[in-house]
Amino acid sequence: MLVKRGIAVSPGVNFGPALILGTEDFRIPRQFVSVNVIETEIARLKSALDAVCEEIAENERLASDKLGEQYGAIFAAHLQMVSSPRLREEIETLIREKCYSPEHASSRVFRRYTKLVQHLGDNYLAERASDIIDLEKRLLKQLLGEKREELSNLTTPIIVLANNLTPSETAGLAKEFVLGFATEVGGRTSHTSILAGALEIPAVVGLGDFLSDISGGDMVIVDGNNGEIIIDPDEETLAKYKDTGERQRSMAARLAARRKIRSETKDGTRIHVMGNIEFPNEVEHCRERGADGIGLYRTEFLYLQSNTEPTEEVHYDAYCRVVQAAKNRPIVIRTLDLGADKIPRGYRHLAKEGMNPALGLRSVRLSLRDLPLFKTQLRAIFRAAVHGDVRIMFPLISTLLEWRQAKMIVGDVLEDLEERGVDFNPNIPIGMMVEVPAAALLAEEFAEEVDFFSIGTNDLIQYTLAVDRSDPAVSPLYNSSDPSILRLIKMVVEAAHKKNIPVTVCGQMSSDLKSIPLLAGLGIRQISATPLAIPEVKEVIRHLTIERAEEIAAHAMTIDVARDVESYLRGELYKICPDLFDEELPL
Ligand code: PEP
Ligand code: MG
């Protein structure tokens, strides 16, 4: 049994057989075979190994003829490895003694060698590990056939393990079969992590190097509460996790029963709790959990899920579905936030352009550069706004000029729609996200012109602290409790109050229970959280008084180190609602 620690990004606990992506690319469907077929399975292994040897020998001939003997020698070394009697014997022994399937046994043996080579302390040899991985792939291809496992075509439940998953790969996960996922890289608020929350799949990221410790088909527990994965758990550990799963389900049921109770503080202040969504079907999840509306609809996922550019009708249909499902509750549609880690297939060039894509042509900057793209989306939003309470929000606004340009495009779009003679609603609120420090610093000026603010703490933290939100190497520096963040939020709230415009917090900070008293104390009366967190966020609000929240915020503002603010807030949360949390379920 091996325990690995990473960053918990989507709560819940699940276990199942591992499907390793990235290095394996093949799915190992069976870990064991029955005793009576062992000889047949060994024969299958032998013919697969022979086929691999033939394939490599052919490569050796080709490389030697075309490129010279020295290149052929690379394959000669591979051939030597695969035809080594010791390797064959090791795999056979695992099949005979442990009843492992040839695929599982081979994967285990190759991975053991990969690991040994990686840890010899010699850089040149460590690089040879990729040769062994390549041999493993060749053998698995022979044993399993050509078929590469498509994440979207799964047929049995598995735990997905990968070096990394892009947001579009994550969006394509078949939720009914993916019990959990874990990746070597990734950060707390990377879009892959946010999606895991949206799909409600327990997930751990930023685990560091672990794929060579595991083979496809091995049993794995993903503990999305504590940020751990457990490889090959023993019976006792497995039983403990089954029990945790049960208790969590009963806690969720208890909260679900209270979902219709309004989120109002004990002294009668209403704090609206909205939901963040990426897909139209999530409106239902928000409603089931008692959300007051949709505070952030990340529309770029329309692009990330598709191979072709969505037409105006595709946008319109998606927005109408959201409006219909929201049943008159407000919906804030954010215009495209493409770029950085959210790159659709047709826009791969964006990823290559700059060294720092998070500082590059992303988000509203991209929309302003590609006006047909921007206008298509805006037309669809104004048309859908006929059917419900729709609002528009521009992401990543950094300067007043950018805001004014975006508003000008809105003017053009309204004229187009007028000319076309279609039904549309021109009178809808238009606001902006405050997620760039420059915008927070100029909040008073912006507040003169916008209809509302929504504070995007995910990017605000990244840009204020200069910490890549998806890089585990700097994740300890990424902290929503940093005094600089508290000050920026306070500035934005004060500017909004002064000009009498609404202000929401929609970054992950608003799903983090310990931050709720602080935000309420800073004057936030609207929160937009990930759907899973909504019942608990509402529960915390119902345990609060504004007076206490203001004291907590005032005290937090006097602390000068993020870590101390964090532990203070955590302590206060426990005092405010001790009954809400099971001691063993960390927040
Ligand atoms: C944010 O930056 O806080 C935000 C809500 O936007 P996203 O996470 O989509 O970048
Ligand atoms: Mg953002």
Automatic annotation (TrEMBL):
PANTHER family: PHOSPHOENOLPYRUVATE-PROTEIN PHOSPHOTRANSFERASE
Family: Belongs to the PEP-utilizing enzyme family.
Molecular function GO terms recorded: kinase activity; metal ion binding; phosphoenolpyruvate-protein phosphotransferase activity
Gene: ptsI
Listed cofactors: Mg(2+)
One annotated GO biological process: phosphoenolpyruvate-dependent sugar phosphotransferase system
Protein name: Phosphoenolpyruvate-protein phosphotransferase
Coiled coil: 35-62
Active-site positions on this chain: H191 (tele-phosphohistidine intermediate), C506 (proton donor)
Gene3D superfamilies: Phosphoenolpyruvate-binding domains, Phosphohistidine domain, PtsI, HPr-binding domain
InterPro entries: PEP-util_enz_mobile_dom, PEP-utilizing_PTS_enzyme, PEP_util_AS, PEP_util_C, PEP_util_CS, Phosphohistidine_dom_sf, PTS_EI, PTS_EI-like
This protein's GO CC annotations: cytoplasm
First-listed, main subcellular location of the protein, grouped into a coarse class: cytoplasm
Catalytic reaction equation(s): L-histidyl-[protein] + phosphoenolpyruvate = N(pros)-phospho-L-histidyl-[protein] + pyruvate
Sites where the protein binds phosphoenolpyruvate: R298, R334, N458, D459, R469
Membrane-crossing segments per the record: none
The protein's role, per its UniProt record: General (non sugar-specific) component of the phosphoenolpyruvate-dependent sugar phosphotransferase system (sugar PTS). This major carbohydrate active-transport system catalyzes the phosphorylation of incoming sugar substrates concomitantly with their translocation across the cell membrane. Enzyme I transfers the phosphoryl group from phosphoenolpyruvate (PEP) to the phosphoryl carrier protein (HPr).
